[in-house]
Amino acid sequence: MLSTCWLLFLHSVVQLIPNHLNWIEHSSLSFLSAILEGTKSLVDAGLSCEYLSEVKDAREDPLPSQECNLAALCDMAKELPLVSENGEDPVQFIEPEDGCSTTHLDLFTRITENCMDCAMEVTLMGEKYIIPPRCAFLLSDFARMQPLVGCEYGKFFDLIVLDPPWENKSVKRSGRYSFLPSSQLKRLPVPLLASTGCVVVTWVTNRPSHLRFVRDELYPHWGVEVLAEWFWVKVTRSGEYVFPLDSPHKKPYEVLVLGRYQLPMEEQRVIVSVPSALHSHKPSLSEVLRPYVGADARCLELFARSLQPGWTSWGNEVIKFQHGIGCHLERTLRLSSRLQRETTSSTASHACL
């Protein structure tokens, strides 16, 4: 279970390098030292709480991927008329049929909401997907986001998290998923979705040009002020880096660029966790960002491939990781949330701001 559980130890916040440093300076010895120091503090706490184990990890086979090609279906669905063109309600609600299952929904042209306090099950092309409680999603292509921004929906969000499909050579070679050119990201209607003071968070690969683009072009284009860079450090269940920290190829961390119109936040922060067994499945940021957006914040994730309770999500693979073969993820997310709350409560005195 721990191999798929993200252990976000929130008790230690490490302030790293100032915002004005560029990516090359990030590779300096002082930067590596800061990553080492922050990770050691978090891993030590994980070992002491027995969330991590000093026993070396055994190699595990990756989880099987689903057969239903959601991105291809979304591409074909672009030919369907939008419900707004027919004057229909762009939002549909999951209603219980046969207990906790629903089978007949228009998942491609409407926002789907589960307003219930329990998870529901939907079926698409014969495949079953688990929909968390109190969440909403839009399964669509990049060009079909209108239901989210239309006046009929009328929602503005206090937190927007983006996990763009960045273009890179390995993605092109593997064909694992489609990518989006950086220039296309500017077309995302973030200003039409964000409330005043909205926190905007973007996952960025370790490619320097992508980081520069987000900081120098994308955020200024949206009117978002860059405030912070945080780092997600990936470790094994025994607390070791998944790749050497000084590897010239793959790094054991990814970057989060945070921006906001108001209110300060830590310039740098380290998040350490065991990565999911599902490829490119990012850890939930709900708990770690809660102090900055509030408990009742309206949260939106773009390019999502999974759903979270209380969130609205969009993407052309938005229910990919809700597939029935990975339904254990719901239990994992609940366990992860409980561990986060326990860790925050029991170790608050060790926080370093």
Automatic annotation (TrEMBL):
Keyword Signal tagged: yes
InterPro entries, alphabetized: DNA_methylase_N6_adenine_CS, MT-A70-like
Any Pfam family: MT-A70
Domain of life: Eukaryota
Keyword Ribosomal protein belongs to the record: no
PROSITE patterns per UniProt: MT_A70, N6_MTASE
GO BP of this protein: methylation
One CC-aspect GO term: cytosol
Coiled-coil ranges (or none): none
GO molecular function: nucleic acid binding; RNA methyltransferase activity; site-specific DNA-methyltransferase (adenine-specific) activity
Keywords, comma-separated and alphabetical: Signal
Signal peptide: 1-16
Family of this protein: Belongs to the MT-A70-like family.
Protein's name in the database: Methyltransferase 4, N6-adenosine
Organism the protein comes from: Hucho hucho
